Every structure is written in structure tokens, then in C-alpha cells.
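Question: Now follow the chain.
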Amino acid sequence: HLNAVQVFSEKGEFVMRLAERFERVGGIAVDKENNIIIVDSNQHKIHKYNESGKFLRSFGGQGRSNGLFQDPQGVCVDTKNRIIVVDRRNNRVQVFSNLGRHLRSMGSAGNKEDQIQDPCSISLEFHDRFFVTDCGNGRVLLFDSSGSVRRSFCLADSSPWRPTSVVFNPP
């Protein structure tokens, strides 16, 4: 089952394989109701399944308008159960309701403090702040819950650095 998503228990036991075939999984998250959120980068869509594997809905599609994607990648779900998706080729992050309704977009192409170039992944931190890898600019950005950039992290020297993944590990 190429490109299948498989679910395992906490003990590492196989639970299920989701029925839909995905072209390229770009990220997976679980919401407060244990629904499984899957990013299919090639289909430019987000798919949602309940914890039993029943398909609930898809949203998105290919495009540049709000709610559409160009190569979506990472995904996370905040404490308000909003779905936050890295929209790589549109150089932005998009926020959706748990039902898939577009709420807002943040970022634009460029290298200024509030801009993103080729974002790859996302990780949620405390208080609904989140880290986004800004691969094109060689940095990691920290956004607050309102979508404003609060800090950026990069290497002190001038070596080429393209962070492709980020994980927040709470203390």
C-alpha cells in the first residue's frame, strides 16, 4: 500500500490503514476529538477522518486564493481546534476552522521579518504560538496566536542553512 496512512496504538500495534490512497502525504495531525488530519501535497488538499477511519471531509484544492494551496506541507491543530497548514509554494500559512472554513492567511513571499520563502513545516508551542521553517530564508519563525511573527532563529554564521523540519518539545 504505497502512500497509505497507517495507524498504530500506543503499544505499537497496528490498528488500521486509511482507505484513501494519497499521492504524497505532507503532514499529519490529530485534533481534540482524535480526528486525523492529513495533508496530501500533490492533491493540494486536506483530508479529515474520524478516529475509526471514517472519511469526514476534504477541503482545499490547487490555487492561489485563500483556502486553496500550492504544495501544502506541515499541519498542526491549536487549542481552539483550528487547523493550521503550511502552504509552501504560496509562501504563507493558512488557518482553518475545524470544519475546513478558511479563517485567515499570514505571510507573503520575501525575506523581511514578516515574510516567508518556501515554508516547509510547522510545530505548535504553548499558548497557540507556532514555529514555521522558512526554508528559503534559512530560518525558523515563531508566530503568536494572532499570526504575527514574534522572533526568528537562524545560524550566527553565514553558512547555507535550509531548515526543513521543526519540533517543539515542552519541558
The chain is about 0% helix and 40% strand. The first strand starts at residue 6 and ends at 8. The two ends are 37 Å apart (CA to CA). The mean pLDDT is 88.
